[in-house]
Write a structure and sequence with these properties.
Elements (H helix, E strand, L loop, with lengths): L2 H28 L2 H23 L4 H5 L3 H25 L1 H22 L11 H18 L4
Length: about 150
């Protein structure tokens, strides 16, 4: 990965943490985490729809090749993750919840990369990658489960 792409990934991670914080605050102030998640996803959907229409759609033959479950699964998983974060963050705080989210993403991405889930590029796990993941997970648990 080039340094520029790595910075882009770090920036996207920062945006996800800020999005989770905004959604959680909206959920706390409105006393309805599901409403907050729904509003956030609706605004995102409208914005992405406008960008998609402005940039032009792919040919309909290409779109028809995509299985229905794939059209639906990303949105459903996003709704579940967003609503869970809207509920958890006001109770536990951003500094505890987001590291645990990173742990979940790390574990899932290593499993997905190792087995090539969903037709994504397969990347066998090296001992160095497993050691790095273990160190990251230890760091997450040190951040999250402090004895206070």
């Amino acid at each position: 990965m080039t340094p520029l792409l790595a910075l882009g990934a770090i920036g996207a991670g920062s945006l996800l943490a800020l999005k989770a914080a905004c959604d959680a605050r909206l959920g706390a102030l409105s006393a309805d985490p599901l409403l907050a998640a729904g509003v956030g996803l609706a605004v995102a959907g409208l914005g992405l729809s406008a960008l998609t229409l402005a940039s032009g759609l792919p040919p309909s033959s290409r779109l028809a090749e995509v299985p229905l479950w794939l059209w639906l699964s990303g949105g459903l998983l996003t709704a579940l993750a967003t609503s869970t974060l809207c509920w958890l963050i006001p109770q536990q705080g951003l500094g505890r919840v987001i590291p645990l989210c990173l742990a979940g993403q790390l574990i899932t991405s290593l499993c997905a990369a190792g087995s090539g889930w969903l037709g994504l590029p397969r990347a066998p796990l090296s001992p160095a990658a497993l050691l790095g993941a273990l160190c990251a997970l230890v760091g997450v648990f040190a951040l999250t489960f402090d004895p206070d």
